[in-house]
Amino acid sequence: MKQLKIILFFVILYFGYFFVNSMFKVIDFLSFDQVYLSYVLYGLFATLVLVYFIYPMMKYLSRPSFNQLKSFIEEDKHQKKFLNYFNKRDNVGLSDKEELKAHLIHKVDEFDGIIKQFAQQTTVTVMVSPNSFIDGLSIFLSNSQMIYKLSSILGLRYNFKSLMRMYFSVLSVASVTGLVEEFDETIEAIIEELAEEFSELIAEESGKSVGSKVPFFNIAVNALSPVLQAAGNYAFMYYSGLKFKYELLNIVEDQNLSEKEVKKRARRRARSLKYAYVKEMSGKVLTGTGRKITKLNPFKKK
Questions:
Q1: Residue 131 pLDDT
Q2: Is residue 78 part of a domain?
Q3: Same domain, yes or no, for 136 and 224?
Q4: How does DSSP classify residue 254?
Q5: Looking at the domain assignment, is residue 242 inside a domain?
Q6: Are the beta carbons of 173 and 139 closer than 8 angstroms?
Q7: Coil/strand/helix, residue 157
Q8: Is 13 domain-assigned?
Q9: What pLDDT is stored for residue 240 in this prediction?
Q10: Domain span holding position 258
Q11: Cβ atoms of residues 220 and 287 within 8 Å
């Protein structure tokens, strides 16, 4: 695991270098070798970083952390700070930690819809983007925006260590997605293997030879490949959002789960949603080929 983290660290560094270098090339191209115009574009780039990264990060870090909330619930620390903070922020009249727990649980009810919205937006963006680098950038930005929005609704945040872990995880996925395009061929190969596995069933059901079904399979292979890629991003977005949600519930509902168990719970739920996504989207894609495939849909329950 340590070796993998080291490898991912260097992948992230290369992705960051590639991103910054690409931005410099774009600025140089747009400036048409005009020094003053390049200064304006560099200033614009710096302003965008300040407005969309540095300022939101400072605002994010100004919120109370999960660790402080845990200390309040378990040891009655920061009591005055927390109650005053939420009473003023949400215009409520909380008087003790039990009322605060109920208030936070009520806010968490909004999370599922927001997570689903970001997951769907990210998968659509990745599927229609022109290259893998934009895919990686989209994953990073979407995850960051989602966690920031969930934190804004809740009024709480990860502590700094957990935040860095989250960014390392997101950047790892974004970097690998943005730099490694060879996975496309691997996914297509997997689809072709699945098609071959179902070929005998198709021949048995239809009474026709497998060869007569090859054109249909060629269409299905090309159509389902991006669906499987999108499903991975869909699941990762859900995992990232659900981990934030479950970590909060672990504190306010006194579940006493370890960080590893919280991650496992989020991962299990994200995996089930991934399978549901593949089932739904593959059914739509295969139906869109114009063939009646009720009996041939591998995801249909018998």
A1: 65
A2: no
A3: yes
A4: T
A5: yes
A6: yes
A7: strand
A8: yes
A9: 93
A10: 110-287
A11: no
Structure tokens at 296: 């041939």
Contact predicate 69/251, CB 8 Å: yes
Does the predicted TM-score (pTM) go above 0.85?
no
By the 8 A CB rule, do 66 and 248 touch?
Answer: yes
DSSP 65: B
Residue 82 lies in a domain: no
How does residue 213 score in pLDDT terms, banded at 50, 70 and 90? very low
Are both 148 and 276 inside the same structural domain?
yes
- Can you tell me the distance from the alpha carbon of 105 to that of 91, in angstroms, rounded to the nearest whole number? 17
Q: Which of 150, 95, 98 is nearest to 254 (CA)?
A: 98
Q: Are 208 and 138 in contact (CB under 8 A)?
A: no
Q: Tell whether 130 and 232 lie within a shared domain.
A: yes
Whether 53 and 118 share a structural domain: no
Please write the tens of the pLDDT for every residue from 251-272.
999 888 998 899 999 999 998 9
Q: Is 219 exposed, middle or buried (0-12, 13-18, 19+ CB in 10 A)?
A: middle
Residues 138 and 40 in one domain: no
Q: Are residues 250 and 152 in the same domain?
A: yes
Domains identified in the chain, total number: 2
Q: Which two tokens stand for residue 302?
A: 């018998």
- CA torsion sign, 294 to 297 to 298 to 299? negative
CB distance 27 to 42 below 8 Å: yes
- The structure tokens 């849909």 sit at 297
